[in-house]
Amino acid sequence: MIKVGIIGSTGYAGQELVRILLGHKEAEIKWYGSRTYAGKAYADVFQNMFTLVPDICKGEDLEKLCEEVDVIFTATPQGLCSTLVNEEILSKVKIIDLSADFRIKDVETYEKWYGIKHGSPEFIKEAVYGLCEVNREKIKKARLVANPGCYPTCSFLSIYPLAKAGWIDMKSVIIDAKSGTSGAGRGAKVANLYCEVNESIKAYGVTNHRHTPEIEEQLSYASGQEALINFTPHLVPMNRGILVTAYANLVKDVTEEEIRALYEETYKEESFVRVLPAGVCPETRWVEGSNYTDVNVKKDERTGRILMLGAMDNLVKGAAGQAVQNMNLMFGLPENTGLLMPPVFP
User: Fold this and answer.
1) Averaged over 262-284, what is the pLDDT?
2) In the chain, fewer beta carbons within 10 Å around the N or the C end?
């Protein structure tokens, strides 16, 4: 039985970790960390856990709490994990960080886009980017995993087969993405109030969203060439879900059927990437509450461009589900353990 601790257990991603791990046959949550709700019953914060979680939230004393568990999930704001991690802690426990602290390999790029100083840059090189579909073998050996961002996961999985094959111009990629409001976290913000969000849709982070360098870096690794993208996220009035529509110029004369065959071959062994039938567009409602990402492609014969589409739940495959997927690999379990819940509808 894997003994688990969760720092940031009272955020949306943290609560989703709790929901998934309560049904995981090989894991047991030993403590629930929360700076805001330390000393308060977890079920008083999330009443859906009434009678399911009798525990009291603990603080975030990582030096002490790491003695009790095998793995710690840090579902915290950017900057916190990097100030907590050190060699002594990593010698005792594995860390899966859901923030961006260890995703970007260039510390100057991280500090520029996130506007904070990195607390432990000496561990950036060691940290493994936790996208299981491409880094599976490295994750198995890791003691520090950087769980990918939600937008980067959906964007990357939508584009990856064409990028890896070298069939698209990596400086022509445009990503139009839309997310539900849970992607902004559980903190109180005026811009996320019901009256501010309902019956509206808006772009934000235009030309400067901090997931941009993460997407560019991973697409560059996949393609073997520098990726330069336009990434524009939008906030839509729903709780969960991400929808990506990406565009790029083809550099190879291939048919849509050949592109579809490429996607099907790339993802044929993947538990959580579903290539939809021709003409079927991904929809967030068909992945909600699950660890699945639905993808599809469409070639625009008139312009010669390719459209790459993806949909996923930002709190599951975009955060907690992917983190559990990483945990499974790190502890030698089947990758899909505890993650085969079907999407919820309606």
Assistant:
1) 98
2) C
pLDDT digits (tens, 9 = 90+) for 210-260: 999 999 999 999 999 999 999 999 999 999 999 999 999 999 999 999 999
Q: Is the CA virtual torsion 119, 90, 40, 28 positive or negative?
A: positive
pLDDT (tens digit, 9 = 90+) per residue, 86-113?
999 999 999 999 999 999 999 999 999 9
Domains and CATH numbers, the chain: 2-126 (3.40.50.720), 151-314 (3.30.360.10)
Residue 57 annotated in active site: no
Nearest to 3 by CA among 84, 91, 73, 53: 73
Q: How far apart are CA 320 and CA 174, in angstroms?
A: 27
Dist. CA 165–CA 283, nearest whole Å: 26
Report residue 195's pLDDT band, with 50, 70 and 90 as the boundaries. confident
Catalytic residue among 57, 66, 150, 154: 150
Q: Give CA torsion, residues 293, 294, 297, 298, to 10 deg.
A: -140
Q: Where are the beta strands (DSSP E) in the chain?
A: 2-7, 27-33, 71-74, 94-97, 128-129, 144-146, 174-179, 202-203, 230-235, 242-249, 273-275, 293-300, 305-312
CA 41 to chain CA mean position, Å = 28
Q: Are 329 and 136 in contact (CB under 8 A)?
A: yes
CA distance 42 to 57: 6
Rounded mean pLDDT, 336-340: 98
Give the three-class secondary structure for 71.
strand
**Cα four-point dihedral sign 204, 218, 133, 84:** negative
Instruction: Report CA torsion sign: 76, 124, 270, 248.
Output: positive
d(CA 164, CA 175): 17
Exposure string over 130-152, b if 16+ CB within 10 A, otherwise e = bbbbbbeeebbebbbbbbbbbbb
Closest CA to 295 of 185, 201, 163, 181: 163
Q: Are strands 230-235 and 202-203 parallel, antiparallel or unpaired?
A: antiparallel
Indicate the pTM of the whole model: 0.95
Burial class (CB in 10 A: 0-12, 13-18, 19+), 82: buried
